[in-house]
Amino acid sequence: MKIGIIGTGPIGSTLAKKLGNAGHEIKVTSKSSEHELSETAKKLGVGHSSLQNIAKDVDIVIVAIPTSAIPTLPKNLFEGISDKVIVVDTSNYYPTRDGIMPVFDNQLESVWVSEQLGRPVVKAFNNLLAYSLENEGRPNAEDNRVAMAISGDDENAKKIISQLIDEVGFDAVDSGNLSESWRHQPGMPSYCTELNAKELTLALADKDEIKRQAATLRDKSMEIFISLTEPPTHEYVLNILRSLFPTNPKR
Ligand SMILES: NC(=O)c1ccc[n+]([C@@H]2O[C@H](COP(=O)([O-])OP(=O)(O)OC[C@H]3O[C@@H](n4cnc5c(N)ncnc54)[C@H](OP(=O)(O)O)[C@@H]3O)[C@@H](O)[C@H]2O)c1
């Protein structure tokens, strides 16, 4: 498939490499200059394009930039682009990074992203750390793979993105419509805790009450990470995230 990726941070660049290696035709974009972008793309072994042209002549656009940057994307990004082009939102809102965005007191993150982009979105690639995405993928013949959550309103689009999740080494677990995407937002037991498909299915089915604690737990985890004097190991980050949720299957 032809895939355009907005953002070449840890998520965008890891997806570019892995999906390129899986045989897809990838182009990336970011807010960097043409020269810097072409150097980045060369290192990743993929193509690049201007932000304005990233949605042209592709089957899928993956948005992998900070939540607060989404409103700065060109308003006409999808003008004249077929409705068949699938848009994937990987973003997670962190007030410590994005600034406080009161809109999320009343609206789900990816529902807001969809409104900002003026297109339906599939939420995916958001509930694993970039480290996990890069290092924990396994061939689908293997048992007990790490699983990734996906949500969205278009079943066919979810099927196609679930196939990509499989190709980059993870089992996809459907969390339901986009209105259920809170189940894999930061502060939830499913979030960056590296569960297998059975465990993730359980974590995603968690009761609504846990939704009320999510923002507090998200901010508590960030406070812990910000207070560290040395970069934490991946194992340490996983253990902190797992320990926050009484219902986490791997606690
Ligand atoms: N890192 C993780 O472990 C992780 C895990 C799951 C989900 N996520 C979510 O996935 C998204 C991407 O995260 P990330 O860590 O890969 O990278 P990030 O640090 O959130 O984003 C960096 C990328 O966004 C680009 N960017 C920023 N503003 C832009 C704009 N206005 N237009 C175009 N590009 C813009 C930057 O361009 P330049 O390169 O030109 O500066 C850079 O390539 C975030 O929402 C994050 O919360 C992250």
Automatic annotation (TrEMBL):
The keyword Oxidoreductase applies. Pfam families: F420_oxidored. Residues 2-93 form the Pyrroline-5-carboxylate reductase catalytic N-terminal domain. GO terms for molecular function: oxidoreductase activity. Keywords: Oxidoreductase. InterPro entries: NAD(P)-bd_dom_sf, P5C_Rdtase_cat_N, STEAP_metalloreductase. This is Pyrroline-5-carboxylate reductase catalytic N-terminal domain-containing protein.
